[in-house]
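Just curious. Invent one:
>
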Amino acid sequence: MDEVAGAIADPVRRQILVLLRDGRLSAGELAERFPISRPAVSRHLRVLRESGLVRAELVGRQRFYTLDPERFTELVTWLAQFVRPSGWEHRLDALETEVYRTRRERRTGGAADARKEDTA
């Protein structure tokens, strides 16, 4: 997870990952989209490749890169603990809480009613 977090710490590498989200691109196509030198883009691609976030395939003289989203799983799982539920998740959590409260009240209220019936 540290290797993945380190790889995505750089904004150029994050932008490369976003570009690869829609499909594979050659190293040249990726380099054209940045105002930095091709060797600099190549170094960023090497970091991403070594972290397992992208795969490289050599086709003829061109190297094509594809995203490997499986490597994000551990990091996403770790980050999820800091995100509060929103939308439907929040509402379903509230419904679950209400169901448990109602069940608990029925159990305790039902026992109290049974005691009242015994004493009358």
Notes: The two ends are 66 Å apart (CA to CA).
